[in-house]
Specification:
Blueprint lengths: L1 E2 L2 E2 L1 H15 L23 H15 L5 H6 L4 H11 L1
Antiparallel strand pairs: 1-2
């Protein structure tokens, strides 16, 4: 849940899973996305859905993540959630 209006890590992870499922246009179900799995190795994102995912993150939480950072640094839902939490 939230504390003082701030989303918890679990809330962020769940929100990112739902967001990723939405940008997959029905190819993924949020419940099937492992927050610790590499987004690219498991086929959760490709180049187009990755760009769409990053745009939605910026739109929703005001946090910008560069394309190359998604590939190299923040390539799991958990890592993205930690970055968003620390930078919003």
């Amino acid at each position: 849940m939230t504390t003082n209006g701030t989303a918890t890590a679990d809330d962020l992870i769940e929100g990112l899973r739902v967001m990723l499922a939405e940008v997959s246009e029905g190819k993924l179900a949020a419940a099937d996305i492992d927050p610790g799995a590499n987004l690219f190795d498991y086929g959760y994102v490709d180049s187009l859905s990755g760009v769409m995912f990053l745009a939605r993150i910026e739109e929703t939480w005001g946090v910008q993540i560069e394309d190359f950072d998604l590939v190299k640094r923040f390539n799991t839902i958990r890592a993205v959630a930690e970055f968003v939490s620390a930078n919003r």
